[in-house]
Amino acid sequence: MTTRDDLALANRLADAAGEAIRPFFRTRYDMEIKADKSPVTEADRAAEAAIRAILERERPDDGIIGEEYGSVRTDAERVWILDPIDGTRSFIAGRPIFGTLIALTQSGWPTIGIIDQPIARERWAGMSGQSTTFNGKPVRTRACRGLEGAGIATTSPHLFADGDVPHYMALVAAVSGGAPRQGPVYGGDCYNYGLLASGFLDIVIESGLQSYDFAALVPVVDGAGGVMCDWNGDPLTSKSEGHVLALGDPARLEDVLEAIHGAGDGHHHDHG
Hints:
Layout: H1 4-21, E1 31-33, E2 39-41, H2 42-58, E3 63-66, E4 70-72, E5 78-86, H3 88-92, E6 99-106, E7 109-117, E8 122-127, E9 133-134, E10 137-138, E11 152-154, H4 165-176, E12 185-186, H5 191-197, E13 203-206, H6 211-214, H7 217-223, E14 227-229, E15 244-247, H8 253-261
Parallel strand pairs: 3-5, 11-12, 11-13
Antiparallel strand pairs: 1-2, 3-4, 5-6, 6-7, 7-8, 8-9, 9-10, 13-15, 14-15
């Protein structure tokens, strides 16, 4: 059972990560490029180490999956999934739109999710069966009457695999309605999902995400009235391939899937 105690702990973990990250922001620090070509900084490592120290002390039986320090006890019923800085490129560029992601999963399903922006001190917290909060106050996604003019965001089109680009561009075309100026908001990583939960964006689309990139987002988006799924409309699990869609208004899901897949590759519904 996920309880309020777990949520209180998740908030303390986010506090500890923020304390570790803030001294590094817009300063000179050590950085290296990992095998997958993504950057990692002292701040990423300090934040994850701070979180893991608390978990090892207070939840020694729970599993942990972290981006920087690997996995322990992953076969446990309860597993914490951590991304100390989601949006390291934004962090390095001095843009305060990165976030710390903390999720608690039970039997593989995310039951608690925190998106924390430690510079602006903004925090979205989601828990199964509860309304998502932003700095302690409930938030809701907004209604979206149609795809045209919808607010859409993605971190970067350069992160899409080649085969995914046409599907992404088809969705952008449906949203912009022939007016490219109405195109996407770029950058933002996890921050976009918080903005969607608060009703400032309608659609976030990404591919190539790992479980630590999306586990925390699911309770936040769900608890605000939105929906998250893969590009086929299926729920996200630890087995998902990292094609992620978030919609503020679940009523637009069919429209979005149709735009992504077009008519003819088996994903649209034949009304004939």
